[in-house]
Amino acid sequence: MLGFFKKKKYPQFWKNHIKKVSESIKYSNFENIRFVALDTETTGFDYDNDRILCIGAVAIKNNKILVSDSFEVYIKQDVFNKETVKIHGIRKNGNEIKVSEEEGLIKFLEYLDDAIIVAHHTKFDISMINEGLKRLNVGPLKSKQLDTNYIHKKIASEHRFKKLFSLDELCTIYNIKMHDRHTASGDALLTAYLFLKLTNKFKKNNALNLNDLIKTNYYLNK
Amino acid sequence: MKNTIAERIFDFLKNFPPFDILNKEQLLKISTNVKVIYVENNTFVFKQEENPHQNFYVVKDGAIGLYRAIENDQILVDICDEGDIFGLRPLVQNDHYLMSAKANEESILYAISVDILKEIIASNDKVNKFLIASFSSNIKTPYAQNSTRHLFANVETLESNNSNLTDFRTAEYSKNPVTCSKSTTIKEAALIMSSKRVGSILIIESKNPIGIITDKDLRLKIATGLISIDEKVSEIMSSPVITVSEKITTAEAQIAMLKHKITHLCITKDGTPNTELIGIMSEHDIVVLQGNNPSVLMKEIKRAKDVNTLKYIREKASTLLKSYIEQRIPITFISNIISEITNAITVKAIELSLNEMDTKPPVKFGWLALGSQGRKEQLLITDQDNALVFNDVKEEDYSKTKSYFLLLSKKITEKLNIVGFEYCPAEMMASNPNWCLSLCEWNAQFNTWITKPTEKAIMMCTIFFDYNLIYGDKELVTKMSEFIFKTINSFEIFLNFLGKNALINPAPLGFFRQFLVENDGKHKDQFDIKSRALMPLIDAARLISLSHNFKDENNTIARFKKIAELEPQNKDLYLSCLDAFKILLRFRTEQGIKHNDSGRYIALDNLSKSEKLKLKSCFKPIKDIQDLLNIRYNLAQMM
Fold first, then answer.
1. How many CB atoms lie within 10 A of CB B252?
2. Given A56, A68, A200, which is nearest B32 (Cβ)?
3. Which residues form the CBS domain (chain B) (predicted)?
């Protein structure tokens, strides 16, 4: 919210993002909250030098994954790392229709709206997006964020002090059938499944409370 | 925009009816609008009496139980597993839920908006039919007069969708048939036939065919001098003629000819005798078209001089069976034709063996087919089950007579084995001294089985009661049947024992919709379609037929037809058993052809969803007829 006081001239899309998140009135009632499960495919793990190639996302509302409310964008990048192509399968000049990083991120923010982000290792995906936003002279994301890993650690007390889990490991623990891993949309859908199962297990007194959920990822929302 | 998630859902749904009959656009539209829901174990998706949701549901993972509350009990009505649809009927009919849906294990569901489906129903008739069928099979009294027609309707829809239309080959016929009017004289007709070089002439009246004359008529009725050549053709023509439409397939044409014992079919505009004649199809046309023809095979069997020829013909019959199944010819016709061929081969094997004997048979005898061959239900090659009965002889001649027939039987069974009917592992063959008996001995044997119905005796009865005379003296067999009925009538409790046996294999639905599979042994986790689905129906039909003293037919389909006539109050049930039996028999045959075995054990994993649905739809009649037997023969007390 500091943005308003700095009176810096922000582009319209960023002003919209700030306004939507700060003015959202949905957060008080869990059934009304729109969550967006997302995943990114990147050229690598270096925040400074690697770039986002694809963002996939799907919305969750009132314990339902809304397939009609999903998002998928492929981004054209100059940075290319042939080592990670074998993981995500996105070639430099593949068949997908690609847009510029700017267009991709603006579209994503429009889609994101006032939703709460859910991801697996959220810090990585959000940092990559924030680096991209920084190149557009805006950011970081204002949206509230959740991490499936930390919700799991809260529920499974025996795992609390252990390492972080990979998406594969959590899918195995929660008996979720894995299909096309390592496409952004595929992993976003798995994350969404995981989120449905986790929130069902997480219920306290049969009710869900956003604050309790947010408290799980102490490292993200200090 | 690319939508990977919707594509994944598309890929899942396309495997299940009715989604498999949607076109790509329709299914993609559904997939794009799916809502994915996670349901924890023991939580409700909806409750009975609730107003309908906006969506119906497809199970993606897990299992949903449908429960109906009756007073204070929750009755489990159905279990939906992967790919099953539930909660649709109330949406379409604007009615509240009649059942509750509760997760029996944690489940993931796809919720699909009913509005999208309604749009598709309006434009896709097959989907509409599927849904109507699945509703009607859910109603409480499936045997109500009007619903029997729909009971298997979903199967029909699926079948017609799966059958490959290119397998249908329309039969060829002559488009310019030679004709004359009924006032033509026989001599004129014969002259026309000669000049046109044809073997038949059709008699027409205002373009519609009314009769036919063939070379054979001229030979039998004219050349013999019975009728003068100056008479009108109407004197000797065969009338009426059998008419078919030009769309008839080769196989259907063959069946029509066999059924009516004729060699020519008239093709008319709409297939009835009341429209214009447009062509004629002769048996010869078909023979040219298809070498494997049942009547050609029958002729080859009659001409066969050795057992290897018979083996070759039996193999050709298997090819024929395969093509009939592919063309979806009615199973009753298929089993008639195949059993006629099997019987003819057996007769030929007997004739060949008799020729090898040094002397003619000392007394009259009868060769009996037992089990599935006796019931004319043997489609795939299975073991041989047979027996021999010979006329009573003086005591001093007995051992000589018996050795003669044992030797004969050994020769016959050896030949059948070469043809491909393997020896019965339980030695239920006429070459076994126990089953090569005089009439007197057989009567004594049946008397023992009937009056001392041990478990083994009852099992023997189920095999030997379905005997069918293949070759030899009919009178011997009639006497035997009469004796059996007399004995049963004087010892009626026997039928109760037979009834108990019919319930040994309960309807194959264990936990409502789960298949009962074999627990151990070589066929672990496979479904035994013979003992779990076919035998209960065969046993029931036999038992009820016997209770009505009906022994003219052993065939299960014929038995159900007959008892449906005899007991009009149970007609609907018996006819649905008949339908189920036909479907199961075809199913077993298809599986057998596919895996080149007896088709008896079916690996459920290899079945498609629609095949499983098809099987399951047959199980309800099995359960219902077993319930009927249970009550009728007071079996609960005997268990």
1. 20
2. A68
3. 173-231, 237-296
Domain edge (last residue) among B265, B289, B313: B289
Token couple for A200:
């069902």
Q: Is B5 on the interface with A (CB under 8 A)?
A: yes
Same domain, B258 and B317: no
R_g over Cα of chain B = 29
Q: In chain B, what residues touch A189 (CB-CB under 8 Å)?
A: 5, 8
Residue A98 φ then ψ, to 5°: -110, 150
**pLDDT in the model for residue A160:** 58
Dist. CA B332–CA B388, nearest whole Å: 28
Pair B374, B327 in one domain? yes
Q: Does B418 fall in a domain?
A: yes
B3 touches chain A (CB under 8 A): yes
Question: What phi and psi values does residue B8 have, to the nearest 5 degrees?
Answer: -65, -40
Per-residue confidence (pLDDT) for residue B151, from 0 to 100? 30
Q: Which amino acid is at B378?
A: Q
User: Residue B425 in 3-state DSSP?
Assistant: coil
Question: What residues does each domain of chain A span?
Answer: 7-22+31-214
Residues B197 and B302 in one domain: no
Range of the domain at B625: 492-638
Nearest in space to B37 (alpha carbons), one of B53, B19, B57, B17: B57
Helix, strand or coil, per DSSP, at residue B164: coil
Of B2, B5, B38, the CB nearest to A58: B5
Residue B170 placed within a domain: no
Give domain status of residue B37, yes or no: yes
User: How many domains does chain B contain in total?
Assistant: 4
Nearest residue to B525 (alpha-carbon basis) of B516, B534, B538: B516
**Sheet of B243-245, strands arranged across:** B243-245, B264-268, B277-282
Per-residue pLDDT of B352-371, as tens digits, reads: 999 999 999 999 999 999 98
Same domain, yes or no: B355 and B398? yes
| ipTM of the prediction greater than 0.85, yes or no | no
β-bridge partners, A56: A39, A72
Same domain for B285 and B295, yes or no, is no
Average the pLDDT over B512-534 and give the result. Answer: 68
- CA angle at A166 for the pair A160 and A169, rounded to the nearest 5°: 85
In a domain, B474, yes or no: no
Q: Which of B1, B5, B82 to mutate to test the interface with A (most CBs of A within 10 A)?
A: B5
User: B197 and chain A: CB distance < 8 Å anywhere?
Assistant: no
Question: What CATH number does residue B46 fall under?
Answer: 2.60.120.10
Residues B518 and B618 reside in one and the same domain: yes
Q: Same structural domain for residues B499 and B633?
A: yes
Helix or strand run (H / E) with residue B475: helix B474-490
pLDDT of res. B516? 58
- The span from the CA of B105 to the CA of B41, in Å, is 4
CATH number for position B221: 3.10.580.10
Structural contact between residues B376 and B338, judged by C-beta atoms closer than 8 angstroms: no
Q: Does residue A137 contact residue B68 with C-beta atoms inside 8 Å?
A: no
Fold of A7-22+31-214: Nucleotidyltransferase; domain 5 (3.30.420)
The one-letter amino acid code at A180 reads D
Strand A64-75 to A98-99 pairing: parallel
Whether residues A64 and B36 touch (CB distance < 8 A) is answered with yes
Distance CA A214, CA A149 (A): 12
3-state secondary structure B85-102: EECCHHHHHCCCCCCEEE
Domain identity same for B276 and B370? no
How many angstroms separate the Cα of B291 from the Cα of each of A129, B251, B298, B526, B611?
72, 12, 12, 37, 32
Q: What is the pTM of this model?
A: 0.50
A154-158, B547-551, B555-559: lowest mean pLDDT where? A154-158
> Do B242 and B233 touch, CB atoms closer than 8 A?
no
